Amino acid sequence: MTRSSRSQGSLAVSTLGYALLCLLVRGPSTGYDLAAQLRRPIGYYWTARHSQIYPELARLEGAGLVTHEAGSGPGPREKKTYTITAAGRDSLAEWLVHPPTRTAPKNELMLRTFAVGAADPLRMAQMYLAMANEHGQRLAQYRGQLAALADNGAEDRGHPRFGNYATLRFGVAYEELRVAWCRWIASKLVDGPS
Amino acid sequence: MTRSSRSQGSLAVSTLGYALLCLLVRGPSTGYDLAAQLRRPIGYYWTARHSQIYPELARLEGAGLVTHEAGSGPGPREKKTYTITAAGRDSLAEWLVHPPTRTAPKNELMLRTFAVGAADPLRMAQMYLAMANEHGQRLAQYRGQLAALADNGAEDRGHPRFGNYATLRFGVAYEELRVAWCRWIASKLVDGPS
DNA sequence: CTAATCATGTAAGGCGTTACATGATTTT
DNA sequence: AAAATCATGTAACGCCTTACATGATTAG
Hints:
The structure is a homodimer.
Chain A lengths: L14 H10 L4 E2 H7 L12 H13 L3 E7 L5 E7 L1 H11 L11 H7 L6 H31 L10 H30 L3
Antiparallel strand pairs in A: 1-3, 2-3
Helix pairs in contact in A: 2-3, 6-7
Chain A binds a DNA duplex through helix 2, helix 3 and strand 3.
């Protein structure tokens, strides 16, 4: 049984598949729109290009987790609006409560930091300050979005945007940490002894 | 000019290549040993299997950034000990001061959190508490390692292990944040209104 | 009239994991 | 006697990015 087989619901769903279900559970959407939605705030934690999304939607449909309705689109092909099925909701609900599988960490900033002794300290300090700036700007954005959500009552766990609120709270705390750490190491490299 | 071309030093080096140089700048090593070194603490931020490391070392040698000396090994093949070259040191020093290229975020926990409303709140709370536990255990490990480094004087930026110290400081702060956030959302899901 | 946006797909190639393959030495 | 460790490589396959391909509608 190949992966493109239709009419079976027991095929393994990739994390990307669940990411799409996370969006589709909030309402029907086209592949194009899903690509656009993979921005704020979920795009801070998961992204995908349309070249990945279109084949994945076809797989989800083959597994019976979504269906689509086609209509006339702007281009040469039909526009397809995807909707999550009851099986899709069940599959998502079960996946959500499982602890995440550990994925390989990829943090280039910490990789550089591990070898910080092999570079010029002043140039490294400048790099860290530039990163502090970048994270500081993101922090300001996140704080603004968080305040807007709080105003709409999204701190309540029953609110439909509570998920946005909770992820943004993490984002704010993480950016604060990164700004503080970057400033700490920069000052260490400039003022510090030896 | 293909990637396997020898005797040229201008070929693009991948991030994995620089990760290996980050280790080799501390001293010569075999591919096997590099795979083992990609654990504490650099493995918290970057990992690779031996199947990736061996071909990458050959590419680095083709680019003139490392050399190797062969001796008799335990198995059917020769044991190769790699050493960073002066060109390798220069290339690394230049790479270190560049700000990291933005890589696609992959945070499965935040992905799940975005769709938290589609799952059973109590089961989600249990999952978050399990994660808080896991991160709490890592936090204890990191704190132990950090204290050992501090005792050896690694807070000094001139110390050969200052890189380990700085990355671990980030690790401790990050794990603290994750534990606190997981506990916050778990209590929100259990006690919270609605 | 030019550019952006909407909309869907495929192809080539890099990166990374798992599994296959070999075999000596040391520990249990 | 069996298992773990040391040590190096290749092959198959999945995930992901970049680039190729098409074309209507709308905004500047």
